[in-house]
Design brief:
The protein has helices at about 1-15, 15-20, 20-30, 35-60, 75-90, 95-100, 105-120, 125-150, 160-185. The chain folds into two domains: about 1-60; about 65-190, no CATH class. About 80% of the residues lie in helices and about 0% in strands. With about 190 residues, it is mostly helical.
């Protein structure tokens, strides 16, 4: 569990600088230069991610069960992760109405994904991992919206082709992951 906790602190800590210290982030970027700052950010992110993967794998070997999720939660999780994949696609597909409406679809994707996993898992390691990402995503979304309002950010209206493309990419990516890749990469087949 210590590796999982260390990984979460490093990874989410690096990703929380804009939430808790946006001015310090700006100052560091100007002092170090863009490339050096991004390099340090990348190294910290990869180190944290590696520790999360390793620590979570170790913690899964001897799980401590907090509760047994209801069977129906699997169906809710499937719907929530479908929404998460559509939101993730909307972060990258240009000109879609989803991004125009929610403004930060990637953060909402993480929040939805984490919530789905908290609802369907009941071990300490799962709750720690997904609960941490859920709390981070809520705080990040609030901070991002506040920053948008302060800077007067206006998001361009989406188009029908862009929105349809985001939906199709999201649904296809979800199906590929839910029916195939989740089993290979994570060792659990949520569907199929």
């Amino acid at each position: 569990m210590p590796y999982l906790i260390a990984g979460l602190l490093i990874f989410l800590g690096a990703h929380s600088i804009r939430i808790v210290a946006d001015s310090a982030r700006t100052r560091l970027r100007s002092q170090w230069g863009e490339k050096a700052y991004k390099g340090a950010y990348t190294v910290l992110s990869l180190l944290g991610f590696g520790l999360i993967v390793w620590g979570f794998g170790v913690a899964r070997e001897t799980p401590t069960v907090l509760w047994m999720p209801a069977t129906g939660m699997r169906h809710l999780a499937a719907l929530l992760t479908l929404l998460a994949f559509v939101l993730l696609a909307a972060a990258y597909v240009p000109g879609n109405a989803i991004k125009a409406r929610v403004h930060h679809p990637m953060v909402l994707s993480v929040k939805t994904w984490a919530l789905a996993h908290v609802l369907t898992t009941g071990t300490v390691a799962h709750v720690l991992l997904f609960g941490s990402f859920l709390v981070w995503a809520v705080l990040c979304f609030v901070a991002s919206r506040r920053r948008d309002r302060a800077q007067g950010v206006v998001y361009a209206a989406g188009t029908l082709p862009g929105t349809v493309a985001a939906l199709v990419v999201g649904v296809l990516a979800w199906a590929l992951f839910a029916f195939y890749l989740h089993g290979i990469l994570i060792g659990i087949r949520p569907l199929g």
